[in-house]
Design a protein that fits this description.
There is one protein chain. This protein is mainly beta. It starts with 7 loop residues before the first helix and ends in a 26-residue tail after the last strand. The chain folds into 2 domains: 129 residues, Thrombin, subunit H, CATH 2.40.10; 103 residues, Thrombin, subunit H (Beta Barrel). It contains 3 helices and 16 strands. The protein is 8% helix and 37% strand.
Length: 280
């Protein structure tokens, strides 16, 4: 999982970025296509240990309390256990809000964790004390929009890390039936092509489709040392049970499944039609 790890900062200073083998099934010219939408840091946030972004659904209103999306494993209380769901838990966590150039323009604060889990997916959704309209008025920053449709293989994407103020460019290499890491298992995960060589601290970064500018996934892990199914070394499990290890390759969790679960007022309602997120 892509939280900051010991030695990451030193490694960055010495080598610039972690290397990754060229394991990809999508032609590299797909990745090199010019993006249709300019992607920058506006709307992303830095947490104390991870990255994140201010997000809205297609039906969110300017007056709704704003939401921040990150990973379940980035919670201030630590990793949720397999099968655990956090719902409507009080939080006062703060987030550094970034503008398009990656400069901090303000501090946002949560009043609760609306939803978080590491089961089937790896997400945390915080509710903020300010509305989208208030953030726009005070800081001139708009929220990123969650795409309500499933992404497609080969799509050009950017992974935008507010923690490191760094943007990674690659494509969706494919989808993983089950991604297993330690005690956790995630469904239908996004696998990147090798140029998205994300590192510790990039956890929770929004994955943005460059054709639409919408968030299609949230960055969460990668296989660091070639081990199989251990922490920081996820393995891919196919429908027939075949296990594949791809050292240096990184992954994200799709976010279109969040959209049906968000009701009026940005309330997370797990009983809404089409909502398949795990329940407590």
């Amino acid at each position: 999982m892509k939280k900051p790890l010991a030695g990451v900062l030193l490694a960055l200073l010495l080598t610039g970025a972690a290397a990754a083998p060229a394991v990809a099934s999508v032609p590299q010219d797909t990745v090199a296509q010019a993006p249709a939408v300019a992607v920058d840091f506006a709307g992303t946030v830095a947490l104390s240990n991870c990255s994140g972004s201010v997000v809205r659904t297609p039906s969110s209103l300017p007056s709704d309390p704003a939401l921040v999306l990150s990973n379940g494993h980035c919670l201030e209380s630590g990793f949720p256990a397999a099968g655990e769901v956090v719902k409507d838990q009080r939080s006062t966590r703060s987030f550094s809000l970034l503008n398009s150039s990656g400069s901090k323009v303000g501090t946002l604060r949560a009043d609760k964790i609306s939803y978080a889990t590491m089961t089937d997916t790896d997400i945390a959704i915080y509710r903020l004390t300010k509305s989208y309209a208030q953030i726009q008025s005070q800081y001139g920053i708009s929220a990123l929009t969650l795409d309500g449709s499933r992404p497609t293989a080969g799509s050009a994407i950017k992974v935008v890390s507010g923690y490191w103020k760094r943007i990674y460019s690659c494509a969706i290499d494919g989808f993983v039936h089950r991604l297993k890491e330690g005690q956790w298992t995630w469904k239908d995960s996004v696998r990147y092509t090798s140029s998205c060589d994300t590192i510790g601290g990039t956890s929770g970064s929004p994955v943005i489709d460059t054709a639409t500018g919408k968030v299609v996934a949230v960055n969460n892990t990668g296989n660091e040392s070639g081990e199989s199914c251990t922490v920081n070394n996820p393995c891919e499990v196919a429908e027939d049970g075949t296990v594949t290890v791809r050292q240096g390759i990184n992954y994200a969790q799709q976010t279109y499944t969040i959209v049906p679960c968000v009701g009026p007022g940005n309330v997370i309602d797990l009983n809404r039609a089409g909502c398949v997120l795990p329940k407590p």
